[in-house]
Amino acid sequence: MTSPSLPSFPEIESLASAPLETLVSHLVAAKRSLSSIEHVWRANEIVTSTRAFLESTVITSARTSFLRAGISAQVQTLEQVYHHSKAVEFEGAEEYQEVVRTLDEADQRLKGTLARLRTTMIEAGLRPEADQRKSLLDFIDESGVDELLISVQEAADAAQEAHADLVETNSNFWTDLERISTLLHLSSYPQHQPMMDKASGYALHDRPLVSPIPEILESMEDRAKDMANNLESLVKHFDLCVTAIKHTEGGGEAAQRLADDLPVGVDVGEELKGAPPEQISEQERREMFEVLAKDADQVEEVVMEIRDHMAEMEGQFSTVSAYLDQVAREHSDINTAFKRLDNLGSRLHGFLGQSEVFVMRWDDEKVRINERMEELKNLGDFYDGYVNAYDNLLVEIGRRQFMEQQMDKVLQEAMRKLETLYDEDNAKRETFKSNHGDFLPVDIWPGLTDAPLHFEVRPKNGADKVPDISKSVIQRAIRRVEGKSVL
């Protein structure tokens, strides 16, 4: 041990003539400082453990890196498989939505047509007087419509169920991939915050995981060497204190007693435990006390330096331990990821089969749905034609009413003319009979006294009269028919 300044000659003289008690107090302090050997042993233990940790982490990290590389490659392949199945899912969803949209349109159209049939009441003139008022809907069987709609809905539900199975399978597969990827700490997932050891100042990052142990180990070894050198200085100082006391009158017994019961591992030499030391000159004794004077004030400083080194090494060892735990956790995560990947691989065939099953089921249901949709369209067209035909029926009735009216006019005109001719003929016959009848024999012509032909006009067949439908009803029907013709 050295000091930045040397004591003056009077101080050395004072120490050389110091009482035994002062020397004993220095010896006690020197002996107490030797307990620092425990820190040295601990430092040696830490260095040894850190070397072992370094070897262990190198092996573990190498295994982890190898597994991570292999698993990452497999995960990328599985992600491509997933995205393919997801594309099938999206395509199926789009097609299903289009089918649902078309189905809704057909259903709304059919319901609208049925509503028109329900609200279109048959004109009373078309039905017997005792008959209850009916609508166009009363003349068709709705059960066929319901059965067709149920059939379409069943096909749509079956397709939706198949799609839901695929969605669930894809979701479960992606969840498993996420768990594996999370364990791998892939860049697509949030990173953990770096671990910072406050005592050592070293940061431990999850990714990339760079070992801080080599740098820390080098620092530890330097500190351990400094501690060993400081302990050696303390031992030498203790030796010097013992020697100084033995060269002081009455100090032999005190030196012998204090030199015993030293901390385990401290070796002060056999010569300090034996007989009185050899005689030394006054100059040698003065030089000895000079060194003792310089060292005595530095003992506490050296002890504190050893403790500071120890505290710093403990902090560094905490960082090493934390890194070791992190490496172990990462290796455990990788092993867990590997097991999950193995489990996922065992289910890969079923996953791939699920998308194929969906495609086949969806193709079958699309054919079934399209067939039913065509039936719905045809049924809608038929009902639209039914409504349109009823409107045309009303128009036809209006036409027939007009024709009857025209026929009646012609008939009335003919009857008027026939009646005029009849009256004229009858009058002339009476005139003839009056002028000449008395002179002619009755049997000269049997038809001489017959009345003129008198015509009666009646329908040739037994056709019913055209129903009495109001002109306003017929006019509305005409506008609807003409409107459809324009469209």
Describe this structure in words.
This protein is 73% helix and 1% strand. The chain has helices at residues 9-16, 20-33, 37-119, 143-184, 213-246, 252-259, 282-296, 299-346, 348-436, 471-486; strands at 195-196, 203-204. A two-stranded antiparallel ribbon has the order 1-2. Strand 1 and strand 2 form a beta hairpin. Helix 1 (9-16) crosses helix 7 (282-296), helix 4 (143-184) runs antiparallel to helix 8 (299-346) and helix 5 runs antiparallel to helix 8.
Defining traits:
single chain; mainly alpha; 73% helix; 487 residues; 10 helices
Give the SSE map.
Elements: H1 9-16, H2 20-33, H3 37-119, H4 143-184, E1 195-196, E2 203-204, H5 213-246, H6 252-259, H7 282-296, H8 299-346, H9 348-436, H10 471-486
Antiparallel strand pairs: 1-2
Concise account of the structure shown:
The protein has helices spanning 9-16, 20-33, 37-119, 143-184, 213-246, 252-259, 282-296, 299-346, 348-436, 471-486; strands at residues 195-196, 203-204. The chain is an all-alpha fold and 487 residues long.
* Helix and strand run: HHHHEEHHHHHH
- Termini distance? 115 Å
Helix residue percentage: over 70%
Radius of gyration: 62 Å
How many DSSP H or I helices?
A: 10
Share of residues in strands: under 5%
Q: Total number of β-strand segments?
A: 2
Q: How would you state the average pLDDT, rounded? A: 79
Taking the sheet with the most strands, its summary is: 2 strands, antiparallel
Q: Which descriptor suits the 3D outline?
A: rod-shaped
Low-confidence segments, given as residue ranges, are: 2-17, 186-208
Structural class from helices and strands? mainly alpha
